Automatic annotation (TrEMBL):
Keywords: Calcium, Chaperone, Disulfide bond, Endoplasmic reticulum, Lectin, Metal-binding, Repeat, Signal, Zinc. GO terms for molecular function: calcium ion binding; carbohydrate binding; unfolded protein binding. Residues 193-255, 340-402 are annotated as: Disordered. InterPro entries: Calret/calnex, Calret/calnex_CS, Calreticulin, Calreticulin/calnexin_P_dom_sf, ConA-like_dom_sf. This is Calreticulin. One of its GO terms (cellular component) is endoplasmic reticulum lumen. The keyword Endoplasmic reticulum applies. It is found in: Endoplasmic reticulum lumen. GO terms for biological process: ERAD pathway; protein folding. The keyword Chaperone applies. Residues 204-214, 227-248, 348-384 have a biased composition (Basic and acidic residues). It comes from the Eukaryota. Residues 215-226, 385-395 have a biased composition (Acidic residues).
Length: 402
């Protein structure tokens, strides 16, 4: 039985189609990824494994290298394809080793006719997916679909990772109009395209001809008609201080007529309100009846695009240092998960250990520098004290001589 399952898994992977795959193993990536010419001051991507990593070769990716810059590079697929009738998986890894404060980390997947030499923020795309961080308020995963010319944002909030380690982001779009977002091969969100985006108008709307009946009483509680305000209730909130006395030096002509200061009235009981009782005429909350929306037309192909043919990074970063790696676009969830485990999964523990080791080294170095600085300050302070003491002795000797 185990052999059968293993064979089925092999068959599934064999049948999978990989439309695009990029591991950024060497400098040849620059030939595949076209630098946009839309601006003349784009930031430069550099091939790097960063300051900490699991494998010095496998963990190389393209890293943003200049602060406060736009970045824009894109690559064509070997051939265009449509995801109609099949699963679509978009996956890549992101490492914000600079402890990013504001910047994008997403990809845009476009049609095959996209002009990559002019790739910019206005370039049409089919799907935009990936993390976006800007201050403490924005730490989310974008999932944006273009539908009939409009870019539709997901209505759910998917929080992205904001640490300095490598993380894998996976978007799965299924032919039954459902989706799933994975982070590090674990589900972060899932649901229905129709429910979680505004692809279509609502199925039902409030009946425009329906109105709440005039005699409909939706007050659950009413004032008790038999309750009345007590006679001693109407006391002012503030009264003149009975213990206050007019100052002896008060001049009415100069200072005006003297009035005692006001104090809180100890007998004040607040604003009186009659007690509430159940309304005998209460009919419940009136619910506006709904009808089928005449503008609603179901679409069982919300997920489908006729043409996929390019992918690119078009983003802004305040503080550079983000590394992108291991991009894959496929029709197989299993293929994408296996690729993530072969790359990120195989090296994440070593990356963490190297990061922790470096952090410890940096901590010790900082402590040594702080100790050296303090020793120098103490030494200088002692030298100043010795010099001052010597001056005092000289003065005393001079005084004795006199």
């Amino acid at each position: 039985m185990r052999v059968l399952f293993a064979l089925l898994a092999v068959v599934a992977l064999t049948a999978a189609e990989v439309f695009f795959k990029e591991e950024f193993n060497d400098a040849s990536w620059e030939k595949r990824w076209i630098q946009s010419k839309n601006k003349d001051d784009y930031g430069e991507f550099k091939l790097s494994h960063g300051k900490f990593y699991g494998d010095s070769d496998a963990d190389k990716g393209i890293q943003t290298s200049q602060d406060a810059k736009f970045y824009s590079r894109a690559a064509k697929f070997p051939k265009k394809f449509s995801n109609e009738g099949k699963t679509l998986v978009i996956q890549f890894s992101v490492k914000h080793e600079q402890n990013i404060d504001c910047g994008g980390g997403y990809v845009k997947v476009m049609a095959s006719d996209a002009d990559l030499a002019d790739f910019n923020g206005e370039t049409p795309y089919n799907i935009m997916f990936g993390p976006d961080i800007c201050g403490p308020g924005t730490k989310k995963v974008h999932v944006i679909f273009n539908y009939k010319g409009k870019n539709l944002l997901i209505k759910k909030d998917i929080r992205c990772k904001d640490d300095e380690y490598t993380h894998v982001y996976t978007l799965i779009v299924n032919p039954d109009n459902t989706y799933e977002v994975l982070i590090d091969n674990e589900k972060a969100e899932s649901g229905s395209l129709e429910a979680d985006w505004d692809f279509l108008p609502p199925k039902t709307i409030k009946d425009p001809d329906a109105k709440k009946p005039e005699d409909w009483d939706d007050r659950e509680y009413i004032d008790d008609p038999e309750d009345s305000k007590p006679a001693d209730f109407d006391k002012p909130e503030h009264i003149a201080d009975p213990d206050a006395k007019k100052p002896e030096d008060w001049d009415d002509e100069m200072d005006g007529e003297w009035e005692p200061p006001m104090i809180d009235n100890p007998e004040y009981k607040g604003e009186w309100k009659p007690k509430q009782i159940k309304n005998p005429e209460y009919k419940g909350k009136w619910v506006h009846p709904e009808i089928d929306n005449p503008e609603y037309t179901p679409d069982d192909k919300l997920y489908a695009y006729k043409d996929f043919g390019a992918i690119g990074f078009d983003l802004w970063q305040v503080k550079s240092g983000t590394i992108f790696d291991n991009v894959i676009v496929t029709d197989s969830v299993e293929e994408a998960k296996a690729f993530a485990e072969e790359t990120w999964g195989a090296n994440k523990d070593a990356e963490k250990k190297m990061k922790e080791k470096k952090d410890e080294e940096d901590r010790k170095k900082a402590e040594e520098e702080e100790k050296k600085r303090k020793d120098e300050e103490d030494s200088k302070k002692k030298g100043d004290e010795d010099e001052e003491e010597a001056d005092d002795e000289d003065k005393e000797e001079a005084h004795d001589e006199l």
